[in-house]
Amino acid sequence: MLRSSHRSAEPAARDGTAPAISSAPARDRAPGPLAFLLVLFSEMLRMRLDWFWYLIQMSLNPLALLVFVYVLWDDPRAAQFAVTGSLVVTMSTSAMLSLGQQVGWMKETNAYEHYAALPISRKLLVAVIATRGVLLSLPSILTVALIGHVAMNVRITPLGVVILILGAYAMSGLGAFVGFWSKDGRMASMATQVLATIIIFLAPVYIPLEQMPGFLRYTAMAIPTTYVARALRLSAAGGGLSALWPDLTVLVGLALVSLLLVPLRLPWRRS
C-alpha cells in the first residue's frame, strides 16, 4: 500500500472555516536553481501570445524620450544623458512597472493559489518575474544602445550592462511590494504608473542633479534610479570600478533587500 507523504490533512478550524493552505515544507522543495529555471521557463511561455505588444510597450517610451531629449536639449551632454536615461527607463519599466502589474494581475486572478502549492518560495517567484522582465527588455536595451553608439557616439560598456541588470533587480522590490499589497490588478497598474513617474522624472535620469530644484536634489538620493543613471553615465565615460563602487554598493544592497527581505513580508494571498 502506498503511503501518503503527509500523515493527514490539517484539521478544519473550529469556526467552520477551511484551513489555510501552507506552502510546501522546506524538505519537499525542489532545488533552488532547478525550480528557478522551470518557473522561469513557464513564465516565458505565458508571453508567447502577447510578446509583441509587450516589446512595443518596452521600446516606444524609451525611444521617444531618447529622441526628445537629444533634439531639444541644447547641451554638449545631451547625447550621453539621452542614451543612458532611456536605458534606465527601459530597465525601470521591465523591473518595477511590469513586475508590479504582473503581480497585481496574479493576485486578482488568484494565481497565488497555484504558486503557493508549488515547492517554491516567494523569494524565488519575485526573482523569476524580475528575470523575465530583464530578458524581455533586452531587445529595447540593444536598440537604444545601438542607436546611441552609431548615431550619438555614446558607447555602453559591458560594465554598463552589469549596472543595468543590477539596477533591474534593485528596482524589483518596489514592483513586488506594490503588486502584492494592491487590492487588484487595476490598483497595481495605477500605483506603478505613479511610481514610474516619480523614479524617472524626480530623479537625475535625463538631467544633471545640479540642475534640479534644491529640494529635489535631496529627495533624489532616496530614489534608486539616481544611482543607476549616475553609474551608467560614469561607465559610458570610461570610469572604472574605483569611480563606480559607491553607486554599485547602493545597488547591491537594494538588490539584496528586493530579492531576499521584501518577499518575506509579502503575503501569498489576499486577506
Describe this protein's structure.
- The chain is mainly α and 271 residues long.
- The chain contains 10 helices and no strands.
- It has helices spanning 32-45, 51-72, 78-108, 112-117, 122-151, 158-181, 185-201, 214-219, 224-236, 241-261.
- The longest helix has 31 residues, at 78-108.
- It is globular and about 55 Å long.
Search tags:
mainly alpha; single chain
Brief rundown of the structure:
This protein is an all-alpha fold.
Give the overall pLDDT as a whole number: 80
**Secondary-structure element order, N to C:** HHHHHHHHHH
Helical proportion?
55-70%
Radius of gyration: 21 Å
Percent of sequence in beta strands: under 5%
Instruction: Measure the end-to-end span.
Output: 39 Å
Count of strand segments: 0
Count the helices. How many? 10
- Morphology call: globular
Which class of secondary structure composition applies to the elements?
mainly alpha
Main sheet makeup = none
Low-confidence stretches: 1-28
Give the SSE map.
Elements: H1 32-45, H2 51-72, H3 78-108, H4 112-117, H5 122-151, H6 158-181, H7 185-201, H8 214-219, H9 224-236, H10 241-261
Helix pairs in contact: 1-5, 2-3, 2-5, 3-5, 3-6, 3-7, 3-9, 5-6, 6-7, 6-9, 6-10, 9-10
